[in-house]
Amino acid sequence: MNSTRDIDALIDMMAKLPGLGPRSARRAVLHMIRKRELLLTPLADLLQQVAVSARECMRCGNIGTTDVCDICTSEKRGNGQICVVEDVADLWAMERAAVFHGRYHVLGGTLSALDQVGPEQLRIPQLITRVDTENVTEIILALNATIDGQTTAHYIADQLEQRVTLTSLAQGVPIGGELDYLDDGTISAALTARKSL
Amino acid sequence: MNSTRDIDALIDMMAKLPGLGPRSARRAVLHMIRKRELLLTPLADLLQQVAVSARECMRCGNIGTTDVCDICTSEKRGNGQICVVEDVADLWAMERAAVFHGRYHVLGGTLSALDQVGPEQLRIPQLITRVDTENVTEIILALNATIDGQTTAHYIADQLEQRVTLTSLAQGVPIGGELDYLDDGTISAALTARKSL
User: Fold this and answer.
1) Distance between CA B86 and CA B106 in Å, rounded?
2) pTM of the prediction?
3) Of residues A15 and A173, which shows the higher confidence score?
4) For A28, what's the count of Cα atoms within 13 Å in the CB-facing half-sphere?
5) How far is A184 from A180, CA to CA, in rounded Å?
6) Residues of chain A with C-beta less than 8 angstroms from the C-beta of B94
7) Residue A107: its pLDDT value, please?
8) Which fold has domain A5-53?
9) Is Signal a UniProt keyword of this protein (chains A, B) (predicted)?
10) How far apart are CA A51 and CA B192, in angstroms?
11) What are phi and psi of B186, to 5 degrees?
12) Which fold has domain B78-164?
């Protein structure tokens, strides 16, 4: 192997990142060493900064560098809508779509009997508190269309149906999707939810 | 997008690594932030160290943290054989195979008329110097089986044929390779170089 401990250790550490294996980690490290000024040093500095500054928003669970994230503090976003997502990655995906103008609540996972994840392991109690304290008009359940995701959606719906309007993302044919490649579940969901032209 | 500059910048920087795109960079960054103690902080420290310590071996071109790499300094490796490779990654691959016990010479690329890469842009003069100064008995040309790789091999052979034994890696069917999936060139090379059982 390559002749020095630091570099080996760096490769092993990089290989632990999702989407990278030992081979791609080696490629990445060699690439960084070749582009030291452009890539290696700035990347090291950024990691140091983020390691210090990154934190969870105490209100919605988004990841940022402030105790309460920009979305929660922004006046513009206070329209009474809260979009409930499993994960920060889902929140970021919603933000990239740039169509939702309310606030978010990140559960940090889904209910799962198998993995013994109950409401307390998720941020469901905090969500209920928010519904009681902030003037929330609508909860949009944007959970993944998996069994666990839907179970969690139903649980939250049961908890909140009396107090607030509950909606969920529409299911159907993805834009650019070809029927031929879609699973039966999606097709039947799209047929059931068909709309008149 | 996610609400903070540092994190965005980190994602953009990670996305520049080979094998990572914006999406996988986001996943990697979220993963690191979740595993701050285990991954983010140690990775930042390692990058800092490597950014300072990584350097090219002034003799063979390997990347390490010393001016002359462990392989070049190791007495055990001084058997008069020099394995010529295009790239540090190739050197590391040879070392993983752990069958070669000589030293290396990294060219840093291949001759290419198109990209205007001549012998001076590569480390070919240094190789010739090494042949004259170190007591080299054999040069093993382990260049990629590409047109540029083979052109470079031929050029080096022309330069050195009078002075030293020149060999190159055997070409043939890779271990575990299925004929059905092999290109014609490999099959014909393997047939030409067939050996009696």
Assistant:
1) 6
2) 0.81
3) A15
4) 28
5) 10
6) none
7) 95
8) Helicase, Ruva Protein; domain 3 (1.10.8)
9) no
10) 58
11) -65, -45
12) Dna Topoisomerase Vi A Subunit; Chain: A, domain 2 (3.40.1360)
